[in-house]
Every structure is written in C-alpha cells, then in structure tokens.
C-alpha cells in the first residue's frame, strides 16, 4: 500500500508542477535551441510566430491532479498508521 501511495505522490506531484508552469522555462529553452538552427528554419516557412511570454507564463489544468494527490496522502497516512499499529 505504501508503494502505491508513493507512486501516486510522484505522479500527482509531477502533474501539479507541470500545471503550475514549473517546466515552462525548460520547454522554452529547448524550443529556442531548436530554432537556432538556420537550415531547419529556412525549410519551415509556415512556422507560427509566438510571443515568448505566452510560452513562459502558460498554465495547464488537469482534472485528476488533486484527487491523485489527496488519494496518495490518505494511502500514505493509512499505511503509516497500520504499520505502527502492527508494531505496537
């Protein structure tokens, strides 16, 4: 049960960080690095021009983030309580 809670915490934590825009700077840097190659840029003529601030400050919304995190916390607490109950 503890391993399931740990998996839920990892998945829920990643979703929470992603929806808050924690990885936006990294995605922006990789896109800028990909655009730095002039040969590829000359091949793609119909590339959209986006505002860099749009990419940096974009937020996402996932419906399952909070239920996964809450479930993980409940399972972790229940696992800890059961462990101490068995040991005592």
UniProtKB/TrEMBL annotation:
Keywords: Membrane, Transmembrane, Transmembrane helix. It holds the Pfam family DUF3899. The chain crosses the membrane at residues 6-30, 63-87. Residues 2-84 form the DUF3899 domain. This is DUF3899 domain-containing protein. It comes from Bacillus yunxiaonensis.
